[in-house]
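Entry for the shared binder. Reason: the reviewer on the internal report wants the predicted structure included alongside the sequence.
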Amino acid sequence: MRRRLLIQVLAVAALPLFVAPAFTAGEGGGSGGKTTQCKKGEVWDKKKKKCVTPQYGMLDDDSIYEAGHDLAMAGRYDEAISVLTLAANKQDPRILNYLGYSHRHSGRVTVGLGYYEEALRIDPNYTLVREYLGEAHLQIGDLAGAQQQLMEIEKRTGKGSREYGMLSEQIDHFLRS
């Protein structure tokens, strides 16, 4: 039984590596960084108020998102991917965004692009995804793609938004280097 559960968890965790081309994958929230204080392979369970090993169906999607976000922001990308793939709603743009972010920062930029595109297909006004997508375009040397995302952010939130400022700064840095 324990072996079967482990196989199921590993299969779910590996899923984005095989189906990522079909999917296209900041914010506040999070668990206050408690997930990042858990040892490797564990996340913070708000209800139990302790670190636990995540399992499919054990946590609600908001908790999964928060834990995945916290892990991604802490640079624990592979752990973030493992946690985020446990979400029941595979079409949650927040989940797709941080799957994209984590894959991109793990060196799998093309996989990350796919998750970002899927998140934008679901919510075209999600400007944080557009910022990260622009950064991904810069990573692969696609200045025009990054500038397109900057224009899309400007259309939606103006030049004063955090996302516009962050991507604009990244584009400036890219042009200077």
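Summary line for the report: Strands lie at 43-45, 50-52.
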